[in-house]
Amino acid sequence: MLRDKHTVDDLTTLLEDVPADFVAVSYSLIEQSQKKYNFSVESYLYVTLTLHLYSAYQRLEEGRYRANYSLPDLSDKYPEAYKIADDFLTGFRERLRVDFPLSERNSIALHVINAHGDRVSQAAPIDSLDDQLVNIINDILRKNGIVRNNDNLDDYGRLLTHVKYFARRLRKDRQEQEVQISASSLASIGNDFPEAEQIVNKIAGRIDYELGVKIPKLERLYLVIHIARLLDRKKQK
Predict the structure, then answer these.
(1) For residue 173, what pLDDT is reported?
(2) Which residue, among 213, 137, 131, has the nearest Cα to 178 in the 3D structure?
(3) Under 8 Å between Cβ of 124 and 177
(4) What pTM value is reported for the model?
């Protein structure tokens, strides 16, 4: 069911990049999971998780998939999210014969956890928050030699899509507790992607200074992964 204009716009945008059967399975599994586990999620999950899974599928098909074992395991605190992730792996295998690696379980669960509520200490009361966040990120990426081009078009677009939904969560001005991530998990991510982490630190510092917004740890983790992909594209070129 398309509940509002945002949902219609999101689906229209998504179908420009992702096959309809893939979108249908992802949307169906999100709906079923919420009912099965009584686990509500924000509407942006339909886009962000579907884009993530389709990107992982493309990398699998092209032989470019690399498992990320550095993501924190929060299964003790959020068991329902990991059950949802298991259902996703089973659902895509049975319905589309897409056999995602087990390492995707943690990635899917973290997307679900992130969408279960807004975990930002304060929200900036700015109508053009989307634009301001994007401008800051574009500027810092450009200063670090990363610009949008034909080679990184998809990865850059996914980063901006993620930022768009982060801004939407900020505008809702909720004050729920941030997901706790261990220091060892964050250190592991930094060791794996040191250059990307440095760029994210610059982004977080500038957003805090200019907009008064603290970037949650889980959000920083996602930004590191997105930017690491852009850096990898740059090196390949």
Answers:
(1) 52
(2) 213
(3) no
(4) 0.58
